[in-house]
Write a structure and sequence with these properties.
The protein is mainly beta.
Length: 339
């Protein structure tokens, strides 16, 4: 005759074995950690980071509003792609789910509103090309603002079969730059913005999937906004109650990616189509890279810096006084004014 105590012990033992088996099964799939998945499959997620800027801080959520990710296999074929925009991209902790089979992949991303508006991405080779107009004689030009464009790549990433969530981070580089040009008279007399035409010329309107420039025609970027500016300067001595007003013409231009060594020129014409000034823009921008950025390569500086402010001074004949300029608030003394 089985005693009640022995029966109770047997029941408890069987329950314990069942519980251990269940816990073993659960832990083998890591479901205690990934309970949202509910099985033993691997899950892949991709996040995007934009800290290639002068603040060295991730500005992705503040600046980027559209993302298109392409997943390429070992042969460079696109095996999966996805486009996301709006509130989804702006959400805290945003990551894109990438449901692909385990394997080795390269990730290519074109991001920002610009990649679907101001630029066009070729769905076969993933080149990104600036949309432009042409004059009757075939010259390419842009007369409007260019929406922001970002590029990212992550090469040869292993997507393992191991169960759990695997996260990959794609770093972004900004491919559009804002250039602000100020023309000011040394005498302080007014500068009429309508008497000047501001342009940047470059063949930088097409970028490959690795973000290097592809061969392209020369594009003329015209200022998409000009205005009159005026500032009043007071004498620093309190006993001298005087002030001076300085007038300036201010122009805003947007240009595609700046690459060291590329011939990109800023040229200003007067109302007689005469050249007031013409300078190699990239060389001038690099003049103010500065001591604190000395360990940074020139190209990294150009990729991090996306906003340039240049101030030029005119004499009484509306000619550029080419002895010095201001670039991003730095005074640059030109030793060679023939550049």
């Amino acid at each position: 005759m089985i005693r009640f105590a022995d029966f109770l012990f047997t029941v408890r033992l069987r329950l314990m074995l069942v519980l251990i088996a269940a816990l073993t099964s659960v832990s083998s799939c890591d479901s205690l950690i990934y309970d949202d998945q509910g099985d033993c499959n691997p899950y892949y997620k991709v996040r995007f980071k934009y800290d290639m800027n002068m603040k060295w801080a991730d500005a992705f959520s503040n600046e980027v509003n559209e993302v298109t990710l392409y997943v390429l296999d070992d042969n460079g074929r696109i095996v999966w792609s996805k486009h996301e925009t709006g509130a989804t991209v702006k959400a805290d902790g945003y990551m894109m789910d990438v449901p692909v089979a385990p394997g080795t992949y390269t990730l290519i991303a074109w991001c920002g509103e610009g990649h679907t508006t101001s630029f066009s991405v070729d769905k076969d080779d993933l080149d990104c090309t600036l949309l432009r107009d042409h004059t009757s004689d075939g010259k390419a030009y842009i007369k409007h603002d260019i929406n922001r464009l970002y590029h990212g790549t992550l090469e040869a990433q292993e997507f393992p079969e191991q169960e759990g969530v695997h996260i990959y981070t794609v770093p972004l580089v900004k491919n559009t730059n804002d250039v602000h040009v100020v023309l000011q008279h040394l005498s302080g007399e007014p500068v009429d913005k309508d008497k000047f035409t501001f342009t940047i010329t470059s063949d930088n309107g097409s970028m490959a999937k690795d973000n290097n420039l592809r061969p392209d025609e020369t594009i003329i970027y015209y200022a998409w906004h000009t205005e009159q500016g005026e500032a009043e300067i007071f004498h620093p001595a309190p006993e001298v109650r005087s002030s001076s007003s300085f007038s300036a013409a201010v122009a805003e231009l947007t240009v595609a990616r700046l690459i060291e060594g590329n011939d990109t020129r800023l040229t200003i014409y007067n109302d007689k189509s005469e050249i007031v000034l013409s300078i190699p823009l990239i060389d001038y921008c690099l003049m103010v890279k500065g001591y604190h950025n000395r360990n940074m390569s020139n190209q990294e500086y150009l990729d991090r810096q996306d906003n340039y402010n240049l101030t030029f001074f005119l004499d009484e004949g509306n000619r550029w006084v080419n002895s010095y300029i201001y670039i991003n608030s730095w005074k640059v003394i030109l030793q060679n004014s023939d550049i």
